[in-house]
Amino acid sequence: MPLHENEIPVDETLVRSLLEAQRPEWADLPLSPAGAGTDNTMYRLGDDLLVRLPRTAGNGQSVRKEQTWLPRLAPFLPYPVPEPVHAGTPTGAFPVGWSVHRWIEGAEAGPDTVADWATFGADLAVFVRELHRVDLMGATRAGGLSWYRGGSLGECDQWVGESLDGCRGLLGDELDVDALQHMWRAALALPEASGPHVWLHGDLKPANLLVRDGRLHAVIDFGGLSVGLPDAEHSTVWDLPAQARQAYWDALGLDDATWLRARAWAVAVAASGIPYYWDTFPAFVTECRNRLQAILSHPSPA
User: Fold this and answer.
1) 195-252 pLDDT tens trace
2) pLDDT, tens digit, 9 for 90 and up, residues 260-280
3) What is the pTM of this model?
């Protein structure tokens, strides 16, 4: 089932036709589904490659960002990130840019793959610290590098309120939406975040954190790459167990105001996902509900 209006249909036949036209040397390699997120569909190509296709025309700019900036950021980062090896051009059958990346071996972060959550949280903090230290290399918060998660909470107040109302209507008493709304309001009452703009990954959830031998190995999916204020970057720690959250928080030395704003961003993103994907992506709705339950159970980092 499509997740978005005007979603571009993708199947193996389409992918092979793109390869035959643009990279014929790869067209006969084995091809198999490699997952699908809210923005992209992926196919593993042979042993060493990954085809990444945007779901909608609007997601095409994310592909271009990765192609432009990942090769420039990678040398400064402490863990592997995707390496684009082909910038696919639009065709009549697939009217948006697409990518081929090097395959990165690893498993999604989770209880069956992470050996020690405190170590994992500290490792993730190292990645975030180093990403935020990378020189902007002339990039500014404009165009494809301007995303709401690097901006002001106040600019999002209307749609966050609508999303929380949607959660009330769908979940009733299953979720304490009033408490979540109070957390959102508490963050809005704080002084606006300030400080220099930095590079932001934008979506450091477990699915984008690859594990090998029990440790963080690589960070993938830079479709949300942007330039802005860092508070929202920390919001996904509520997708991790308490030990990881605490270790992450301690390693970065974040202050209380940053924690409150990061928590508000975590509420905003998860609350918006529930009504939007309610009928189309139940697994993602479950992820959003789990994040909100974690926030309610552990409103502080631990």
Assistant:
1) 999 999 999 999 999 999 999 999 999 999 999 999 999 999 999 999 999 999 999 9
2) 999 999 999 999 999 999 999
3) 0.94
For the domain with range 107-297, which CATH number is right: 3.30.1330.200, 3.90.870.10, 3.40.30.10, 3.90.1200.10?
3.90.1200.10
41-77 burial, b at 16+ Cβ within 10 Å, e below that, comes to bbbbbeeebbbbbbbbeebbbbbebbbbbbeebeeeb
Q: Report, in angstroms and rounded to the nearest whole number, the Rg of the chain calculated over CA atoms.
A: 19
Assigned CATH topology for domain 12-102: Phosphorylase Kinase; domain 1 (3.30.200)
